[in-house]
Amino acid sequence: LALVSQGKTCGRCKQEKSLSDFKRNRSRADGLQDWCHDCHGPAVRKSQLQRAYGITPEDYDEMYEAQGGCCLGCTKHQSELAKTLHVDHNHDTGKVRGLLCYHCNLLAGHAKDQPRTLQRIAEYLTADGYTTGTLKLLRLRGYFNNPREEHSRAR
Questions:
Q1: What digits encode the pLDDT tens for the residues 97-132?
Q2: Are 79 and 59 in contact, with CB atoms under 8 Å apart?
């Protein structure tokens, strides 16, 4: 009866580690990644940041420090968040704008990166209530046109 090893040597740091220190990988004969968690995570982060945004982990850390570890949208600190701050970028130019929390990044994405949409939502949320006068004021400000008028012009 052969003894089964309870550890594995990391292909990067060459240290013998517990099997629990390796992520699963079904395509490998032993069912585990070649690199341990400590080596795999930073390597993946580096390649993802470089591929997706053209920045290094050092660039990310510099932005993080410049922002005081806070989301540029809601100003919550990283310590208050469940997930790390996301890299926000302009989808047309690819230029990185800063770091946002998950929810603020999602909000910007759902608004299609249109500042005017977010301004209207902010004004809507701060209004005391919806009235006929509000509707007239919004139309006067050009926030939206009468859909019937737009439909009749399209014919």
A1: 999 999 999 999 999 989 999 998 888 788 766 666
A2: no
